[in-house]
Amino acid sequence: MARRGSYAKGIAKREEILNAALDIVARAGYSRATVRELAQAVGLSQTGLLHYFGSKEQLFVEILRRRDEVDQHVFGAVDDEGRPALTDLPGAVTSLVRHNAEVPGLVQLYARFSSEAAEPGHPAHAYFRDRYETARSAAAASIVEHQAAGTLPAGLDPDRLAVILFALLDGLQTQWMYNPEIDMAEQLGYFWELLSSKTDEGDDSGPASSSAGSAAEG
Amino acid sequence: MARRGSYAKGIAKREEILNAALDIVARAGYSRATVRELAQAVGLSQTGLLHYFGSKEQLFVEILRRRDEVDQHVFGAVDDEGRPALTDLPGAVTSLVRHNAEVPGLVQLYARFSSEAAEPGHPAHAYFRDRYETARSAAAASIVEHQAAGTLPAGLDPDRLAVILFALLDGLQTQWMYNPEIDMAEQLGYFWELLSSKTDEGDDSGPASSSAGSAAEG
DNA sequence: GTCTATATATTGATAGAC
DNA sequence: GTCTATCAATATATAGAC
Question: Which CATH architecture describes the domain A61-213?
Fold first, then answer.
């Protein structure tokens, strides 16, 4: 849109920074993920980088957002126009998990930053809260579709299953960081297996505790 | 054992510090969990506290160890002599989770510290690695017993289920920190339900990826 | 054993020049 | 937009007195 010197370039530079940061973090991990290091990696001074993202927290949030966007396109949660796509949920999630095992630094960034931001006053608290909300909501919707299509047992509770799914993803990553021999994809596959072999009964008593969704997971 | 001035007192003081710290962290959370704050809370100077635990990391590890011991006794993973007890695993874990919801600060400490220590070089890395190993091992053993007793389907793979169980516990806590309305115990109950309604078939293909165990979980 | 004082290190943030 | 320089805020760790 806007040419003439400034606006467009600023956006481009932001993109460049984000992509580079994503790359560095993926390899070097969280400890190297200081504003200075990241800045230097893209040939900027600390101040230069902070010019684009007011604070470290905002920078990190943008990095994670960026990553989500990429993952969502790669693993088919959204189509080329960015609209939610109806894909094979188990397959997509498993692919995602397999991909995550290739970028340990990002897994670490996600784990650390999300646990730091769990503190209610943290600048990135809302980001994660909303992200979980959205992800659960999308996953639950996807589960419903699978049930309609007969690819997941109708007896499953979409909302609760969505919570469990993302809990599992996060938790697997933690254990994997301590023992890379743990095969996240394999474990996840077993989980789907457990679900599928569930006897197909109607609904049950307990009230669902939250909403549902289908974004990518860190 | 040893009387005469020093040794015994040192141990007692350590205990006192640990218990107090546990209490403070449970209420105040991780941000207040600086060596200084903890020291002051037990009427010591920062140096005074560090005299008992060489570093912050060691202190935190001891706090978590302490907590595990307490939890294991309360929730029956070990008997009064400290030997592994054969108890109702689903029940014990659910009780534990319910208890954790009462001590948000500890959940936070666990989440943050365990994600920090995930970095391979971290002083507490080995502690968590071993803890997960032990916990999985004990849980898997417990699952086997339940299967023998007919309280869990024989078709379940103990090793993989143990990984999934602890992943679920960790992950639920994360989501719960961002949205306390998420009922961890309820979610866990649903998970057990899913398992129990599993059609009771024999074993299957996939190789198990890790070992098993039955300690408490943060 | 416990304290005071201090060293040390890190890092995020700001002021202001170019 | 980008840099240099500098601040300021923590926090942990250590030295050494009492």
Answer: Orthogonal Bundle (1.10)
